[in-house]
Write a structure and sequence with these properties.
The chain is built from 8 helices and 8 strands. By secondary structure, the chain is α+β, with helices and mostly antiparallel strands. The strands form 3 sheets. Strands 3-2-5 form a 3-stranded antiparallel sheet. It has helices at about 1-25, 100-105, 110-125, 130-135, 135-150, 170-210, 215-230, 240-250, and strands spanning about 25, 30-35, 40, 50, 60-65, 70-80, 85-95, 155-165.
Length: about 260
């Protein structure tokens, strides 16, 4: 009798171990478990750790809760100012509702990818080339809003969207290079003209000062002589008054005859 009890207990223990091994499931820390019993969703989501299910009746789906980095393939489109570009981006998202991610959409990764590509093409058509090149933060926010609106019903939250690169045709690159070069040349000419204007104002002030003080002109002339003598000792500089040149020019002009001399 005792032996029969021991055999029965051993058989029951073995059956219990087999059942436990078949019913035990491990849910990792970054996962959540969604249980379907006979095809119907159980309301309670299994937390990380050991989860027990009914073998043959329950089916456990593991849902990853980590942030997913998904690259968006380069999309070619025409901007609002009729420029053909290729733009690629990257989407960061995570699952916030495991049950909705499993039940409401067949494959939430594929759905997010297709929505990101469609939204990226739409953003290209609504934006100018200058916005794609310089105002990406605003476009990133608009792109994130377009993807996040349908993703909420899938139990997915869009964390961030970034435009990675904007590829332009070679002809457009050459045109932009010529435009940038012309703009730099324009700024250089404006700076040179402004420098000439400031120099002319200073020279006019110096000339006015020397006109009011003739001795200043003589001192400046002596400084010039000293500078030339210091550089070239064999050069002799003789100051020649400009007034003398004007006197000689007037002396060479013919004197008009008087009427009585004719």
């Amino acid at each position: 009798m005792v032996e029969d009890l021991l055999i029965a207990a051993a058989a029951a223990g073995t059956a219990g171990l087999i059942y436990l091994a078949a019913a035990a499931r491990i849910v990792k820390q970054y996962e959540r478990g969604v249980v379907f019993r006979l095809g119907r969703l159980r309301g309670q989501v299994r937390q990380p750790g050991l989860a027990l299910v009914v073998p043959g009746v329950d089916h456990l789906r593991h849902v990853n809760m980590q942030i997913v980095t998904m690259p968006v393939p380069a999309q070619e489109g025409i901007t609002r100012d009729n420029v053909t570009v290729r733009v690629d981006a990257v989407v960061y998202f995570k699952v916030v509702d495991p049950s909705a991610a499993v039940v409401n959409v067949e494959d939430y990764r594929f759905a997010v990818s297709q929505m990101a590509q469609t939204s990226l093409r739409s953003i290209i058509g609504k934006s100018d080339l200058d916005d794609l090149l310089s105002d990406r933060e605003k476009l990133n926010q608009g792109l994130e809003l377009m993807i996040d609106s349908p993703a909420i019903g899938w139990g997915v939250q869009i964390d961030r969207v970034e435009i990675k690169d904007v590829s332009l045709p070679d002809t457009m690159k050459r045109s932009m290079a010529r435009q940038a070069e012309a703009d730099r040349e324009r700024r250089a000419r404006i700076i040179n003209a402004d420098a000439e204007l400031q120099a002319s104002k200073k020279l006019a002030e110096a000339a006015q000062q020397m006109a009011d003080t003739p001795s200043a002109l003589q001192l400046r002339l002596l400084q010039t002589v000293v500078a030339v003598a210091a550089e070239k000792n064999s050069t002799l500089v003789l100051p020649f008054p400009v007034e003398l040149l004007r006197f000689l020019e007037r002396a060479q002009q013919p004197v008009p005859q008087r009427p009585e001399e004719r």
